[in-house]
Write a structure and sequence with these properties.
Blueprint lengths: L13 E5 L6 E2 L2 E2 L3 H15 L3 E5 L16 H11 L3 E4 L19 E4 L13 H8 L4 E4 L21 E3 L1 H14 L6 E5 L8 H7 L5 E4 L2 H9 L14 H13 L3 E3 L3 E5 L7 E4 L8 E5 L1 H12 L3 E5 L12 H15 L4 E5 L1 H9 L8 E3 L3 H7 L5 H6 L2
Parallel strand pairs: 1-4, 1-7, 4-6, 5-6, 7-8, 9-10, 9-15, 10-11, 15-16, 16-17
Antiparallel strand pairs: 2-3, 12-13, 12-14
Helix pairs in contact: 1-2, 8-9
Length: about 400
């Protein structure tokens, strides 16, 4: 990929900048600005180069129809406040904007086209729509790694018609993921959670030959606990996973990768209840596992302390209830402690993991925190992302 950060002759260029500003909106108010915060360096860089920035982005899934609730207006206002620059939202139909000269009449250095998913052609990776978009700029920059697994017009097809570059945030994302999948410093460990093993099986299979330890936590750990003969009560679990677990165990033994699952847990009879520490052979039928116990926390901490690289995807428990957030918080604290001592390279990703780290104000204490969801997982599965492949053409 060619990075826009290495380009020097950008003055007065019109930059079509694809961002992922798909932030959560509640009654028109942004509840989490993490995705906006992360792309500010790219906007500041391009502004310093005296370019005219034309943002392409989306919110939600309007399915090719205009929806007032999914307007980019709140994001536009937030960007303006954070950057201290005038940012204008262009609400005119994109198909009615014929040439890039259209943008000359606006004094603002940053313009934002309304939700690109208001146009049905966007999700069809439409060639004609791509040509039309390309006519509106001089250069194309993709700084939306979290959308780069989508075969969409403003991610893939547009790059055929303009000189195309990666943005600063996309560079950081690919660099961080490369360090934990290709340019590995061992020992390397992965902490992986979530409710379903089936959604993470390809990640686990791809990482087993490369990693020394894979630590299973969260709801998917319950299937492992049950597989090894323990009662899990009414805990969340995925059905028909015996063969998947057997495949993971067999493959991990072949590749000398240790699979770790909880040795003790915290339980409750309901999600809003208080916690009780239990050994695996002490769980009653009316109880559910909602966090890892102190013995497991200590074991995970020991593994982190002896690792040089760590990947974390998925909290250890039902952290929405503070009574079951301790396992995740202690994992974060141990990683942060090693980071401060420069003993470890740490990457975290996934919506719930980011939410947890936001709650404890720990995002800046990791080497890299990915806001990507599907793209993050597909990259870890070893898949080629269409948006990255397009930039490598």
């Amino acid at each position: 990929m060619k990075s826009i950060s290495n380009e020097t002759n950008l003055r007065d260029k019109k930059i079509l900048l694809r961002l992922d500003l798909n932030v959560p909106l509640i009654k028109g108010k942004i509840s989490d600005t993490t995705r906006i915060d992360k792309i500010l360096p790219t906007l500041k860089f391009l502004n310093k180069q005296k370019t005219k920035i034309i943002i392409l982005s989306h919110v939600g899934r309007p399915k090719g129809k205009i929806s007032r609730e999914l307007s980019l207006k709140p994001i536009c206002e937030n960007l303006q406040d954070q950057l201290g620059l005038n940012v204008r939202l262009i609400t005119q139909n994109i198909n009615e904007i014929e040439k890039k000269d259209f943008f000359d009449k606006f004094e603002e250095e940053i313009l934002m086209l309304e939700n690109i998913r208001f146009y049905p052609e966007e999700e069809k990776n439409d060639k004609n729509f791509a040509k039309h978009l390309a006519n509106l700029g001089d250069l194309y920059v993709n700084d939306a790694f979290s959308c780069s697994h989508r075969l969409h017009t403003s991610i893939v097809e547009i790059s055929r018609f303009l000189p195309s570059f990666s943005g600063l945030q996309l560079d950081l994302e690919v660099d961080a993921l490369t360090k934990i999948t290709s340019q590995i410093t061992k020992p390397i460990s992965c902490i992986i959670g979530g409710s379903k093993i089936s959604t993470k099986i390809e990640v686990i299979k791809n990482l087993i030959p490369k990693f020394d330890n894979i630590i299973i936590v969260g709801g998917m750990a319950n299937n492992f606990i049950e597989y090894f003969g323990h009662n899990i009560g009414k805990s969340i679990k995925e059905k028909n996973c015996k063969k998947i677990i057997e495949e993971i165990i067999s493959f991990s033994k072949k590749e000398n990768c240790e699979i770790i699952y909880p040795e003790d847990v915290l339980v409750s009879k309901d999600l809003d209840g208080s916690s009780e520490k239990k050994k695996l052979n002490e769980i009653f039928n009316d109880e559910m596992i909602l966090d890892i116990g102190p013995k497991t926390i200590n074991k995970i901490a020991s593994i982190i302390n002896s690792s040089k690289t760590i990947l974390w995807n998925g909290p250890a428990g039902y952290f929405e209830n503070p009574n079951f957030a301790n396992g995740s918080i202690e994992i974060a604290k141990t990683i942060i402690k090693n980071n401060k001592l420069n003993r470890i390279f740490s990457v975290a990703g996934g919506g719930d993991t980011v939410s947890l780290l936001n709650n404890i104000k720990a995002i800046e204490s990791f080497n890299f925190v990915s806001t990507a969801g599907g793209a993050f997982i597909e990259y870890l599965e070893g898949k080629k992302l269409p948006g990255i492949t397009a930039l490598n053409r």
